[in-house]
Amino acid sequence: MSVVFYWHPMSSATPVACALAELGVPHDRVRIDIRNGEQRTPEYLAINPNGKVPCLVVDGTPIFEGLAIHLWLGERFGVARGLWPAADTPARLQAMSSCAWAYVTYMAVIGRLRLATADETLRDARHAAAAAADAKGLLDVLEGRLTGRAWMLGTQYSLADLVVAQVVGYGTYVGAGVEGHPAVAAWLAQVQARPAMQGEV
Description:
Elements lengths: L2 E5 L6 H10 L4 E4 L10 H6 L7 E4 L2 E4 L1 H13 L11 H29 L6 H22 L12 H16 L7 H11 L9
Parallel strand pairs: 1-2
Antiparallel strand pairs: 1-3, 3-4
Helix pairs in contact: 1-3, 1-6, 4-5, 4-6, 5-7, 6-7
C-alpha cells in the first residue's frame, strides 16, 4: 500500500502526523507551505479540492478532512495494533462518537472562541464569554466521561484519546483552559507525554 501524507508542521495536519507515528504506518511526506499559499496551487487543488491540509493519498486516491482520515486509519491499521476497537463492538461506537464530538461539537465552540478573542475585526467580549461558557459546559461532559477511568474507552489508550486530546489541547491554546477539570487535565497530560506527540509534527 502506498500512502502519501500532505502536511504542514504545527497545523491541523498535526493530529494525523501523530496518528501515523502512533500506528507506525509507512508513508511518504510532502510538505505544503500553507504560509506561502501552496495549498491553493492548481497542482495541490487537483489532489485536494478543499485546498487544506491534511490530506492522504492512498494508492492514488485522496482522502481529506482530519476526522475522515482518523477514522480510516483506525479501521485500517488501528484494530490490528490494539489502538482502535474492532467493528461491531460497543467500544467502536463510543470511539466514533467521541471523535465526532471533538471535531464537530467541541471544535465549533473553540472556533467561535478563537474568532471572538483573536481576530481584531471580529473581537467581541460578549461572544467570547458565551463561547467560553459553552466550552466549559462541554469540558464538564468530558470530565464526567473521564472521571474514574484512565482513558476515553476505559483502561487502554486508543486513537480516540489522541483525536479528542488534540482538539482539547488546541482549545487550551485559544483560551479554553482545563482548570477546574482535574480528570481532563490529568488525561490530557498523559496523552501529550506519549512519544508520538513529540518531535516535528
